[in-house]
Amino acid sequence: MLRHLDEELKELHKDILRMAVFAQESIFKSIESLKNRDKYLAQDVINTDKKIDDLELAIDEKCIDLIALYQPMAGDLRYIATGMKINAELERIADIAVDIAQRSLELMEKPLLKPLVDIPKLSQVSQDMVRDAIDAFIKRDAQLARKVVLADAQADRLRNLVQDELINEYLARDPKTAERAVALLLIARYLERICDHTTNIAEDVIYMVEAKVVKHHPEELE
Amino acid sequence: MADIKVDNLNLWYGDFQALINVKAHFGERKITAMIGPSGCGKSTLLRVFNRMNDLIEGVRVKGEVVIDAENIVSDKTDLVQLRKKVGMVFQRPNPFPLSIYENIVFGQKVHSEGLNRAKLDEIVEDSLKSVLLWDELKDKLKKSALSLSLEQKQRLCVARLIAVRPEILLMDEPCSTLDPQATSRIEELMRELKNNYTIIIVTHNMQQAARVSDDTGFMLLGELVEFGKTQDIFTSPKDKRTEDYITGRYG
After folding, report:
1. I want to staple A192 with a disulfide (CB 3.0 to 4.6 A). Which of A151, A159, B43, B187 is the partner?
2. What pLDDT shows up at residue A1?
3. Yes or no, beta carbons of A1 and B235 under 8 Å apart
4. Residue B243, exposed/middle/buried by CB under 10 A (0-12, 13-18, 19+)?
């Protein structure tokens, strides 16, 4: 039996996917702007943020309306609750992309500190994680979501690599590099934060599909 | 105080089997909600607990329903005693066409003869207090119970049960004729009563089941499909049929 709520949930799903596309594009563009020293791409990320904020509010309102009007239960309730949380995580991810774009604009004004090697790798990990987490949400695939949660360790490892190199090779040796080294350190930290938010999305997807809480319960991942 | 243990319970109305191998444990001092589509057997199950089905011709019951170490399905069960222990509140409040006072002491007069007036007064006061009607009605005890509002009538029916000191209260859609405010007050009353009684409520109102009960059972075509903590049933039911019913996909 097709219910009116199903139509509403389809609309909500579309909006969350639009939000996900926005967030993914923002990360991609912010990193491309850093790699290619592209001012326009960085500015584009900053300008798009308002649109993403508005969509976040619209999705939130939609979820509250659905809860108030339909009093959803079981799978429907888990879907809407998860949708609200994913919405907030995606908005945070887009905000972090803005931070990256701002650091990228600052770095453009100065000579290149070093060729970027590990930051693009870390950015690739974060983009893959976001893509898989969203795929897991679309396909209601808890196994894929588990894979995302486990991938977070790789992001932490890469962040540490970047951090060690910047501190030992630049900050400790030459104070003149400090401004640029700190900007790169921050970017590594931002990317790692994106992975943390993505891990939250994946954990929420596992709850949505299996009604199992794995957040703060790593043993439940097995 | 009593719990109810149901095991392998089957019930037939003539050739039609209305309950199929029902097994469940209704915990004491808990509210258990029974949900399911019309005709699923939930009211039939409720009526097994105080043998109300005996009044229907052609009913056959097999299995165990244990209350206070006694299988109440057995022929030897003393029905007057059972119905004193297990009281029922119906969909439409059904006070007797007597005064408020007489409604409450009616059961006492059946179950224990020769109580003096002072004792009866005490029972009336206690019973009305426990359904939070005493302050409203203490000066109107001689008035006809039929003059009360629907909600007051329903409370009075609960008070009438409480007067005979039951252990279990069965409620069959007790709020279906009440407006939302009265419903919410009866639900509050149920929460109060839970401290002293084992309550089983049959309801079509899913939100009500979710709000008031500790445990929930979902029935379909005579079977108890799923039984568990209310929180689990309404957020993560294990059986797809339960999920389909509570999310409105059934049918």
Report:
1. A159
2. 65
3. no
4. buried
Residue B138 falls inside a structural domain: yes
Residue B176: give the domain boundaries: 4-246
Q: Do B246 and A73 touch (CB under 8 A)?
A: yes
Interface residue ranges in chain A relative to chain B, Cβ cutoff 8 Å = 1, 3, 5, 71-78, 211
- Picking from A66, A73, A76 by the largest number of B CB atoms within 10 A of its own CB, the best residue to mutate is A73
B104-to-B53, B123, B153 alpha-carbon distances in Å: 25, 8, 12
A4-221: what CATH class? mainly alpha
How far from B71 is each of A143, A145, B13, B27, B66, CA to CA, in Å? 48, 50, 20, 16, 4
Domain boundaries, chain A: 4-221
- What's the ipTM? 0.71
Q: What is the rounded CA–CA span in Å between residue A47 and residue A52?
A: 10
Q: From chain A, pick out residues whose CB is under 8 angstroms from the CB of B242.
A: 74
Q: Cα angle vertex B237, ends B44, A146, to 5°?
A: 170
Q: Tell me the residue type at B22.
A: V
Beta pairing, strands B198-202 & B4-13? unpaired
How many structural domains does chain B have?
Answer: 1
Positive/negative CA dihedral, A105, A106, A109, A110: negative
CATH of the domain at B14: 3.40.50.300
Q: Are A73 and B251 in contact (CB < 8 Å)?
A: no
Which residues lie below 8 Å from residue A38, measured CB to CB, with a gap of 6+? A32
- In the predicted structure, residue A23 carries a pLDDT above the cut 90: yes
**DSSP for residue B5:** E
Distances (CA, A) of B105 to A58, B130, B163: 59, 15, 7
Residues A136-147: tens digit of each pLDDT? 999 999 999 999
- Residue B169 resides in a domain: yes
Q: What pLDDT, on the 0 to 100 scale, is given for residue B248?
A: 86
A170: tokens are: 């630049």
Judge residue B250's burial from the number of C-beta atoms within 10 Å of its C-beta, 0-12 exposed, 13-18 middle, 19 or more buried: middle
Q: Are the beta carbons of A211 and B243 separated by less than 8 Å? A: no
In the stretch 205-244 of chain B, residues with CB closer than 8 A to chain A read 206-207, 210, 234-237, 242-243
CB B152 within 8 A of CB B133: yes
Give a yes or no: residue B251 inside a domain: no
